[in-house]
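User: I'll paste a sequence; please echo it back and then give the predicted structure.

Assistant: Echoing your sequence first, then the prediction.
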Amino acid sequence: MGIDIQHVIELWPEILKAFGQTMYMIGISLAVAIIIGLPLGIILFVTDRGLFLENRVIKGILGFIVNMVRSIPFIILLVALIPLTKLLVDSTIGPAAASVSLSVAAIPFFARIVETSLREIDKGVIEAAIAVGATPWMIIKDVLLPEAKSSLVQGITLTIISLVAYSAMAGVVGGGGIGDLAIRFGYYRYDNTIMIVTVVILIVLVQIIQQLGDWTSKAIDKR
């Protein structure tokens, strides 16, 4: 099983297109995950027992929803969200359609990471902020987020890497991207060269993301 360089050159436009589609899907779903997942994770934390906005009802309802979505295998989620995907983007195939399922999967994933990151903060810091009369919003903005920023960057890195894997899986149902290329050329046409190239691209992409995430996390870590 070798790599036919000439064959790779011939398919290079397809490879670049697939890579661009993968980055498009990851970009959209990551943005949605941060916009919705970050406040969701904060709410999960601050409404927990003993915290300054303790609310068992909200904590229980949101926790149940997050756990429910996270328990559904992504390939099943892809199929289950077809009606929603059709409603939002008027299509069930392509990168934009796949981004809907990726976003839904990423939101609870990142929310739990945010909650876990905030739990690592020394409770004494929070108690000190409460003691000096800080409002809940001030505690979140000036204490929780700054204290957890290094851990949150690591969480974003982990989320991106998970989205890379999910986006490849989306290719099974015509979602576009690297996974779609591997299925159409590598699997259906028994093209070993494309299979190898797509795997290498994904490995290199994950390594770069991890290295950048680690570097950024260390750079902003004030400890």
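The mean pLDDT is 89. The domain at 5-220 is CATH 1.10.3720.10 (MetI-like fold).
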